[in-house]
Amino acid sequence: MQVWKDYQAQHQNRFLDELLALLRIPSVSADTRHNEDTKTCAAAVKQRLIEAGADKVEVCPTAGHPIVYGEKIIDAALPTVLVYGHYDVQPPDPLDLWHSGPFEPVIKEGNIYARGSADDKGQFYMHVKAFEIMMQTNTLPCNIKFMIEGEEEVGSANLGIFLKENKERLKADVVLISDTSMLSMENPSIDTGLRGLAYMEVEVTGPNRDLHSGVYGGAVANPATILCQMIASLHDANNHITIPGFYDQVAALDATERAALNQAPFDEAAYKKDLGVNELWGEKGYTTIERTGIRPTLEVNGIWGGYTGEGSKTVLPSKAAAKISMRLVPNQDWIQISELFKAHFEKIAPACVQVKVTAHHGGSPYVTPIDHVAFKAASQAIQATFGKAPIPVRGGGSIPIVALFEKELGLKTILMGFGLDSDNLHSPNEKYGLENYYKGIETIPYFHQYFAEMSKK
Amino acid sequence: MQVWKDYQAQHQNRFLDELLALLRIPSVSADTRHNEDTKTCAAAVKQRLIEAGADKVEVCPTAGHPIVYGEKIIDAALPTVLVYGHYDVQPPDPLDLWHSGPFEPVIKEGNIYARGSADDKGQFYMHVKAFEIMMQTNTLPCNIKFMIEGEEEVGSANLGIFLKENKERLKADVVLISDTSMLSMENPSIDTGLRGLAYMEVEVTGPNRDLHSGVYGGAVANPATILCQMIASLHDANNHITIPGFYDQVAALDATERAALNQAPFDEAAYKKDLGVNELWGEKGYTTIERTGIRPTLEVNGIWGGYTGEGSKTVLPSKAAAKISMRLVPNQDWIQISELFKAHFEKIAPACVQVKVTAHHGGSPYVTPIDHVAFKAASQAIQATFGKAPIPVRGGGSIPIVALFEKELGLKTILMGFGLDSDNLHSPNEKYGLENYYKGIETIPYFHQYFAEMSKK
What ipTM is given for this predicted complex? Predict the structure, then answer.
């Protein structure tokens, strides 16, 4: 609608400044040293929701970082959209690889560079601004509820409890989330599925103290070596995961579904060039699109042990450890997979070491029904602003809470993300395109309009 | 001699205080942040040599940390002993495992706890004090030269140059070093051989940046996983090292030699209990004594990559790295082994990653001739103070410069160490027994006396 366009054009600079201000708050949920910053960020989100026109805005305490809630109920008879987002961000390290401070946003070549720019501050804030536009132009076509949490990057441990305790307040017809990517601005897409996650930490202990590698080397098991051997054994020669039972629940796609999936444009040469790798890697028998979309994976997210400082130290370390996470696909259950991993890892540990396996967090995979009215509304909204119907794709990432919404609130979720895979999520120099930000703000009101209209029928 | 005993008894407390003062200087050679401390330590060593009665004492600059030299020439016709030691120490980390500050020495249950107490400040300083005793009692039976360096823990990179440039000044009949261990105070021993060392650092690079493990996981090689697979492949099922040609030069011992070696008292139950391990580990077909003495080994001294901080981060790291060192035995050449390692590691790297292999430092193995007059003098000296002839054993550690002395100065080396394997060398809570310290000071003058006498014959 023209009034939307006009209002956005008039206030676009402020929309950007407000986002930059949010990005300056280092709300790193994984690092307790930033607990004050997450509080500050939650308070800022509350303030912005109030300014945008939301009612009953509240910073809701949890056992961890707080959840910000706000709503606008214009007519109980109208459909209600529950907008979810998260104001917490990933840790910024390795810091030395950032071209500019992770929390000092800079605009370069049409992109906003800052931790959280795409994941998820830049994306959830589009909804706050789209809401402002509809409020200020008196065009809000449905009820909106906002739930912006602060623990998405650490597993949303307290969100489930919040959902259980606020079923009435959170009553809605659908959940709308912008926390995913599109194939490109030329090929808009919507994630129709997400992978689940099981995040583990393992610790291998050999001798009860660091030893001199000359005096004891060769006679005592080196936990770093053993850990390497154990991790190496988790994939076979075809890069299949060797954990017994790991694939038992995996929903296999038939040839037609796989063919459809592989319709999505994919330029392998450009993909390799962008990543700076000579060869891709992955499970034998599947394409890259399948490997990142419909197949489960196991990745070492971090490994450490022994002397990692400057120079050399001839030590036989007492301990070595690793963070290992698995991406899951329908119908794998993250708790069962975590247990399978733990049992297997403990089983393959040789008697010369002791292992400790801890489950960090996880979430189940999710698939969006493309015949859902809200999915159709999202498609039409994108069609309206991108001039092209979005391609349905399977996202490789995980937003564990999506499965939670279905379980606790009985709500389906629409993943209308405006980011790009090249946004360096979880990496140094995370970015979010200005065009993506503005286009998102432009698209969201259409979603609400179409969703309200279609829901009537 | 009684005069020695009396003098030592009279000055023993000062001997200890002087050592504690040295131990308070954090002369960590591997860490550039301690460069000032190593300078301070060198100056302190110089001062102590002067006080003990040495002439021409000098702090000799090198491209790295300085070497302290001093000498006492009483008669050019008499034999000359070159005493070698090192004032630099290993990094103290992991700091949190120390019961007391690594550089705040404390005496507990008859032990001096501090980094460098046994390796090597406590041991080289015995020679300074033994020298003082002989000087003060006018009983010095031969010429003595002291060469105390500051780079032993980082590979003595500049010592070779110093030897080359100071052949005249370093002229001697034998090198005497106390930087090794005894089996126990009840079973004194002398190392008749040392293992060589080749210390490497490897870096595996996958994608050009850290990636989101959900978006890219399963499609791009994870350098941490690949590094684990590569390290795992360096040992076979029998824990033999798989690097082609690695064992080609290894001097095999015949049954008699192996039997003699295995005469040394070894209590496996006590050994396991001390280390807190349920099972030992090592190369199939060899005993623990052989594995640590006459067989080469490959150990991961450190490994790191990805997110190692608090909590969880779903990252697919761009790089993973490890420090890997090999202990070598006669007649392996450390440069050749370093090259074999590099070639092999580069060869086994899959095309989906890039590897960088750097050689840190190394040294060749060494065997002491037990028929050498100085070896006999050392045996008798120990017999005189311990009441027992020492058992000849093969030490597992490496003092690369021992081979260097033979090459550059044509001198044999006697390894008359007074430490214990339980001294936590290179580990938290390094210690050195007061009794070991005092007994060493008591023993050393006998070595000089017997060596001077036997050399006459």
Answer: 0.78
